[in-house]
Write a structure and sequence with these properties.
65% helix; elongated
């Protein structure tokens, strides 16, 4: 029997995303700490993944960085993919073959563009 948790938060990836979002806004750890009411070492520990973050602080950080919480934890919520797939399927269910073909081609083009100009470099 495995002791590894199936549903867990990868605090290292969460911290990396917090750091990238902070740097994108040209904020120092000190400024972010002041905005959310914690110490600079707390922000540092969050960014390095050595501290777990409370839900309240997590939401405060997301708000201070102008990002949504799911942008910071998306890899830790595997059910989101299934959720979005259901939305896509719902939108496509009444399409004609011609519409389906056009939408598929558009999706491929948009996906290629997104990968050429990544917003967050989430795979790093």
């Amino acid at each position: 029997m495995s002791k590894e948790k199936k549903d867990h938060v990868d605090y290292c990836l969460l911290g990396q995303r917090v750091r990238r979002a902070r740097m994108k806004l040209n904020l120092t750890q000190e400024v972010l700490a002041e905005k959310v009411g914690v110490s600079i070492p707390t922000i540092s520990h969050i960014e390095t993944g050595t501290n777990k973050v409370s839900l309240e602080l997590f939401v405060s950080i997301a708000n201070a960085l102008n990002v949504t919480p799911d942008e910071l934890i998306m890899d830790s919520v595997p059910k989101l993919t299934a959720f979005y797939m259901k939305d896509i399927q719902e939108e496509l269910k009444d399409c004609s073959p011609a519409e389906y073909k056009i939408l598929t081609e558009m999706l491929a083009s948009m996906k290629a563009a997104l990968r050429r100009y990544p917003r967050n470099n989430e795979d790093e």
